[in-house]
Amino acid sequence: MNCPRLKEWLEERYDLEGIKRLAKGKLIPEHRYDLWYYTGGITLFLFILQFLTGMLMALYYVPHIDFAHKSIIEIVTKLNMGWFFRSLHHWGSQLAIVFLFIHLFGTLLLKSYRKPREFVWITGFILLGISIFFGLSGYLLLWDERAFAAVRVATGGAGAFPFIGGFIKAFLRGSMDVTGDTLLRFYAFHVAILPILTLGLIGVHILLVQLHGMSVPLSLQAEKQREVPFFPNAFYKDLAIWLVVTGVLVTLTVFLPPEIGVKADPLAPPPENVKPEWYFLFLMETLKLFPGSFLGMNGETIAILVVSGAILFFFLIPFFDKKSAQGEKSPLFTWIGVIYLLYFLTMTAVGFLS
User: What percent of the chain has pLDDT over 70?
Assistant: First the structure.
């Protein structure tokens, strides 16, 4: 350190040498250098950026139906670099969800969820769900006509659940329809409730990863793994990858700033060809596969139940895959993962192009 007095002050209070030994003593398998294993760190980095840019905009945003849309315009047009931070926040959320999906499917296909890492999978899966709700709640804060229509459709779809659908819809909306109460409720979710849940889950997720160590693919489990120090070997590579991601993020931020639509009017008809965010497109296309009624039941209700059952099965895969838990290859669950991935990509592409 270049500040001997500061170093002396810290060493009187904290065991800096012990911290250094701990950092240098942490070893990880050499296969960690595969880029696939860095998606979790990239997601964490993007989450940090989201918190920082979100806090900046929260200082100027007004969560009221008369002023929400205007406050977004003023952030973009009147604040110094406001357009940049708003665009950075938008693209940061998109990339964070992209890398969360990549991390999730990488974990699935590499069987990194197997015993004893079931709860690592569970916390990561819940984090993905929270991140998607982050996106939905943040989308409504724009209070433009497309966001209004998309949230009305999304919350209305939640009402298709048997028995509890009405409660879920009323809880999300705060009233019978999407109103100012919904905007205020989504703002509370976006800036208070979801961040607290996210911080807690990230802490638990990282703690579990530290306790169990890095997962080794089944194909390499029988081989003796060469271990390398996390610091500085992997740490510096993490920083280099974060720098590349920052370059991509800033490029998108500058050259593709998100548009601001027309202010929402609850009495106006929805705009033509309105679509939800890309991570909901697979669900929208799935709903189109079912007729209005089927076997005497509402088709939308059946579609919601089918999708919910598929997501629940996906969530519980670590407990169904007994072969991987015993260290054996399980091609069945590999194919199940591939089918899930192909279905998601196909339906997303169809929804985007239609």
Answer: 94
